[in-house]
Amino acid sequence: MKSSSFVLWPLVSGLFSLVLSTACAGSTPPAESPDPPLEDSAESGAVAPASSANVRAGVDAIQRGDFQAAKQALEKARAEDPNDAQAAFYHGVALQNLGDTEAARAAYERALELDAKLVEASVNLSALLLDTGNAERAAEVAAQGLAAAPNHPDLLLNRALALENAGKRDEALAAYAKVVTARPNDAESRIAYADLLAGSGKRDEAIEQLKQVSDTDDPKLLAAVAHQFGRLKAPAECIAALDRAIERSASAELHTRRGVCRNERGDAAGAKADYERALSLDESFAPAHYYLGMHLRPKDKKTALTHLKKAIDLDKDGPVGKAARDAVAELEKRK
Q: Whose CA, among 187, 245, 324, 329, lies 20 to 30 Å from 144?
């Protein structure tokens, strides 16, 4: 799985990524599972009619969220016709929503045995396998589905995620390139692709991917974009993304992160202003106390200690508290 770090001072390598929430949980988009109804075409097209009355009843129950009723109707459908791929697929949907992942996996696999071109079953099965930690098999299932639907965006994404989680970086990079072609407006996929490019030493390509989604209006996605710009040592782009995010929804987290980027760019006054603004929005936000304390420590030991000790109080057992304790210990050694 991915890991990331944001380094401002050597003492706190990785701290920012641990304590500030961003979109996409580590920048990785979730595996895709389609919603009913089943589509007739491998890529898209007219909705296929239900194969039986019980399948229709099961689909209706799924759509209204009654998965127990769906399970019962689809069990009847499968008993009536064991070779009905639709019944097996939708039975898997019902079972998965009831939390029975093993039975759901078996149902999806049976659906694909009956109809290898049933793309929705390939999408759901690959997503389920990813969720249960079987990345190698998920990649195989997604690839098999893509044989029937080469440009299916959900299958492309699931295959890229699976290859990445399986540690096949070069293959994952090529797969993500196809994902962003198929899903050009999907910010989460571009952020994930940029993260993988950055980890592969492809800084300029990663920055280009991030620029493609820097015009989003979602503050959480903008924070995730800014985080990646920070990792790539692109403080100007980081600040621009956070300017946009703060215009839409100011928060202590966003101001603190922008302060880090401003500090990285050499704007000490701007960094200090952001840390102080963060605390005016949320006086109990430990990272803002920490970074303000670290910012002040060269010239104002007393105030720096006040903020660092406050960070310890607010995050006693967390990464902020630990880093702050180390900083206090070092600072108190000075005369």
A: 187
